Amino acid sequence: MNRGGLLVAGTTSDAGKSVVTAGICRWLVRQGVKVAPFKGQNMSLNSFVTREGAEIGRAQAMQAQAARVEPTALMNPVLLKPGSDRSSQVVLMGKPVGEMSARGYHGSRQEALLDTVVGCLEELRGSHDAVICEGAGSPAEINLRRTDIVNMGVARAARLPVLVVGDIDRGGVFASFFGTTALLAPEDQELLAGYVVNKFRGDVTLLEPGLDMLKSLTGRATYGVLPYQHGLGIDEEDGLRVSLRGAVRESVVAPPAGEDVLRVAVCAVPLMSNFTDVDALAAEPGVVVRFVDRAEELVDADLVVVPGTRGTVKALEWLRERGLAEALVRRAAEGRPVLGICGGFQVLGERIEDEVESRAGVVDGLGLLPVRVRFAAEKTLARPVGEALGAYVEGYEIHHGVADVLGGEAFLDGCRVGSVWGTHWHGSLESDDFRRAFLREVAAAAGRRFVPAPDTSFAALREEQLDRLGDLIERHADTDALWRLIEGGAPAGLPFVPPGAPS
Question: Per the database record, which ranges form the CobQ/CobB/MinD/ParA nucleotide binding domain (predicted)?
Fold first, then answer.
């Protein structure tokens, strides 16, 4: 017999589905409920490797941490990793199965994929008290409804009640709630139980007349009004939507432990992946992290990070077009620190041979590290552990490129030459002792009187953030009504809302 479940949908992308899903998971597990997260299909360049070697979205790994369970491929059976505006790598049950155009993906295999998605969901529901599912985009993407395996398609197949989250900070939230409801078919509307308002600022009593009118128009309640909160540093889903000019993951600097701050510039390369690697740097007191796309923005940086990317050759071309490649070469010659991670590591090498990702053949790298890279058809997915700079390190690997290291000083699976480091390991900077040792090396090379804080624990900071999400639900949502929804399904007798009903 299936146990409790709920699907958290949104009026738009970035409405707050991931935050609400993680918050509900943390609230439930603190009540003693055995809960798991789930997202049938995820489109993201930020991914994670589970202990069994499966690749899933980082958002689901974060939600699993919120639920205090080990992430598995069951929690994200389909992952799409964009390689261009029109094509993505399809990762099924944690393993890549090919590259497909958007038209080809939506035009084939959807029935089989829906069976896989629902089967994974039912397996999770059989072993947990509740499964909190996250939708994607909007459930009212009527052009995609026939092939939907993540929103109302999975909700209807598994008879899940649905909450729709709306970001009131963007404006138009009532129209978005009503329009989303009205565009759904009657069978889908039967499962849409109500709404959650996200990012509200001000006096909630001023909002209540609108919530009452929304209920009179749709027959559906609002299950919570969540206030706007700064600094909820959860993992982003989609690297393609990073705003280079916005304050994207620009760290708020706590007072440094030493005399100086340390300034980190991250090259915002195309198809940037796993940019969450620099979160641990931003968590350090006295470290400022910013994303850049111009050569002049590297001038005052103490450390430049070239991050992972789904398009290594494309990133290399982009760096050259913008003068960033030349600036990186100058930095290396001057002994100023540079760190390349995964695709960024490959860019720093001597040569790239790629007949898999870009099919560009042999391409010269920046030549800052004695490394030659050959792209293999099989993707490396691993959870390595090791030691570097005298400290224990954990990481994870997601790459097609196989690096042949020809010299330099050993550094994780890569190498170091002077003040230039390269590795395929994502997540290594989350290892506290290693991060501190690395920052001491960077500060020395940069001539900064920067001292890493001795007691910063990235894992503890992440737990604090997840607890804040749980508090958000516990304090500002109708948790009794939420639990009735999770346990009993959508209320019976919800009315059908035809388009244009308010007039």
Answer: 7-238
Q: How far is CA 418 from the centre of its chain?
A: 33
- Alpha helices per DSSP H over 368-500: 432-446, 458-476, 479-488
**Could you tell me the CATH superfamily of domain 258-453?**
Class I glutamine amidotransferase (GATase) domain (3.40.50.880)
Q: Catalytic residue at 342?
A: yes
d(CA 371, CA 45): 25
pLDDT of the residue at 239: 40
Q: Quick one: pLDDT at residue 257? A: 81
Q: What is the pLDDT of residue 236?
A: 56
User: Residues 120, 342, 415, 424: which is the catalytic one?
Assistant: 342
- Could you give the angle at the alpha carbon of 243 between the alpha carbons of 239 and 248, nearest 5°? 85
Tell me how far apart the alpha carbons of residues 350 and 348 are, in angstroms, rounded to a whole number. Answer: 7
pTM of the model: 0.92
Q: Among this protein's residues, is 426 annotated catalytic?
A: yes
Active-site residue identified among 128, 399, 426, 476: 426
pLDDT reported for residue 230: 78
Domain boundaries, the chain: 4-233+463-488, 258-453
Three-state SS at 287: strand
Residues of the chain with pLDDT under 70: 1-2, 102-109, 231-254, 503
Domain range 4-233+463-488, CATH architecture: 3-Layer(aba) Sandwich (3.40)
Residue 84's pLDDT is: 78
Whole-angstrom Cα distance, residue 502 to residue 498?
9
- How many other C-beta atoms lie within 10 A of the C-beta of residue 325? 21
Q: Which tokens go with 191?
A: 């499962």
